[in-house]
Automatic annotation (TrEMBL), chains A, B:
The lineage of its organism: Bacteria, Pseudomonadati, Planctomycetota, Phycisphaerae, Sedimentisphaerales. It comes from the Bacteria. Belongs to the glycosyl hydrolase 130 family. Keywords: Glycosyltransferase, Hydrolase, Transferase. This is Glycoside hydrolase family 130 protein. The keyword Phosphoprotein does not apply. One of its GO terms (molecular function) is glycosyltransferase activity. The keyword Heme does not apply.
Length: 348, 348
């Protein structure tokens, strides 16, 4: 499976992004939503920041205090045995979890899809009680003139998915939480089918340990029901421990093509493809037996969370999938895959 | 807080209920939905069954095989160290969970609200892939002429909440999964407010360990969004580890009164009350500092899961709350509480 990575990769790295707050540093820019808007390619970048670390003995992190309406910092001593730092994304203390960084969404613009001008200020930043640990992983879907942005809102209340919309990428309207905890990886099918909208989503079922993909339907994009299990994990495969929607599905002749992520027990994140029925998208027609895209380059195999390629958006043009992807939860890469090659990986 | 238990308590016990399958035994009848229908009080009982146990060395349980469309049995040796029986409701093996019984919903009818005639066959039984471990904990809400039944659908895909409706309690129409895993304890506010329906629900957030109550809104009772956190656990209190809606809320002069359950770290389940704003039910006006109803009698303190009172339904009449409740996950009790007393427990 040929993956054509841009020679400029990674096309955006943390040093390209100014922190949004004094005394903070950007530790990751990854998992971007993608849209065409007028003559430009727009990305909504997930930018992960933390306070500049001042001592090797202490981990400094930050979160929104909703009561005060501002970002506050917190410190965790490395020597304290009650602090668990085993996952680089988390600090676990007394059965409570904190994130080691706080993410916001930042707009980037490009004429050629490779070289981006990055906004100076957040487009969407933590502002609600549901967002106090940050906003993450935007997916953009254009329906009519409106661009809908699903994003993950994280707080001590749980991992939820929220919806915002914009007409111009200048002002964004928030529509609240559309999927209750724990739910993420929400991607909309970009048109109504028989008057109903569909969303891929990834609830988590702790009792039975499942991280599977489901599909829901809606009359209005705001309220979701008729949840159906869409596809499950595959023992021993590259998507054996978790999977979730990546980019919003694209319509091809055979149905809806979804590029999704999966991880194995070593937490190696790859991309695969699944083809859904055009009229009944809760039916899986075929699915990649093997990944279509694996972490192979230096910047994919090393970073904040090593061994990850993860997409929230792509452009589909002339039988080419132009994929923007997070590399090692650190930087953004660009790669092109031929639709023909991808369809050849599908296993009915 | 005076609780007037019926002298006939428990009013329904497992020996009152015929098993639905040959070779099975009823181990629990509890957590019933409640409705008035014509001149009768109707209960939709949760009936938990299992194969008759034939050996002390083996646990026999049963589940629906959706492919075959029938209930199959499975056996787990007590001597096998890979089988974990520490929770009487579960068997955990190789990180997979099974239930020790399978539940269905059974109709019971009464003229006086105390003495019930119990149907011979299930009203709603496991029939879908989402229900293969059974259907549980129905809540009934009458809206217009239609009675809506939310119930918990359990399967290896997760713990979800499904919706059915009926006009006559003879035939039931299924409407699919309305809350994705993991979610239960779903109770509807029984009328639209400014054209929107509201549901209390209890998602589970494993990363942050929360078992809190949320509220969602809907245009049609089928699709749900605008999820808001309603009320959380209280450290050191009777509702410190989990809580969830009990009966559908009842309208009183001051707002919506919800009788909910909470559990402490000893897994002791009590009932409490919370008052929600009449027009903006996502706002909590007041909440019981102490339980209004605790497991105290022999049949509440001993049984399949000891130390539990749990309600899915009540009747509100002449300032009295007539509560049907599951006792120790084994039998059904009936108790009356005065609205005046309950309101006096509320802490603004």
């Amino acid at each position: 499976m040929a993956v054509l990575r841009a020679s400029e990769n990674p096309i955006i790295t943390p040093k390209d992004v100014a922190p949004s707050l004094d005394g903070f540093e950007v530790v990751g820019v990854f998992n971007a939503g993608v849209a065409r808007y007028r003559d430009e390619v727009l990305l909504l970048l997930r930018v992960a920041e933390r306070p500049v670390q001042t001592s090797p003995d202490v981990v400094l992190t930050a979160f929104l205090d909703p009561a005060q309406g501002r970002i506050v910092t917190a410190s965790f001593a490395r020597s304290d045995p009650d602090n668990d730092f085993s996952d680089p994304r988390l600090i676990v203390r007394h059965n409570r979890s904190y994130l080691t960084s706080i993410s916001h969404l930042r707009l980037a613009r490009s004429n050629d899809g490779i070289h981006f001008t990055i906004g100076e200020h957040p487009a969407i930043a933590a502002a609600e009680v549901y967002e106090s640990f940050g906003v993450e992983d935007p997916r953009i879907t254009q329906i009519g003139r409106t661009y809908y942005v699903t994003y993950v809102a994280v707080s001590p209340l749980g991992v939820t998915t929220a919806l915002a919309s914009t007409l111009d990428f200048t002002s964004f309207q928030r529509h609240g939480i559309i999927f209750a905890p724990e739910n993420k990886d929400v991607a909309f099918i970009p048109e109504a089918i028989d008057g109903r909208y569909y969303a891929l989503h990834r609830p988590h079922s702790p009792l039975f340990g499942r991280n599977d993909m489901w599909i829901a339907e809606s009359p209005d994009l705001l309220c979701w029901g008729r949840h159906r299990h869409l596809m499950g994990l595959r023992d021993g495969a590259w998507d054996e421990t978790r999977l979730g929607a990546g980019a919003p599905p694209v319509r091809i002749a055979d149905g809806w093509l979804e590029i999704y992520h999966g991880a194995d027990r070593a937490n190696r994140y790859c991309l695969g493809a699944v083809l859904l029925d055009a009229r009944e998208p809760w039916k899986v027609i075929a699915r990649s037996a093997e990944p279509i895209f694996e972490p192979q380059t230096e910047y994919e195999r090393a970073g904040f969370f090593a061994g990850v390629v993860f997409t929230c958006g792509l452009l589909y043009q002339r039988d080419t999938l132009k994929i923007y992807y997070g590399a090692a939860d650190t930087a953004i890469g660009y790669a092109e895959l031929s639709l023909y090659d991808v369809l050849n990986t599908l296993d009915p």
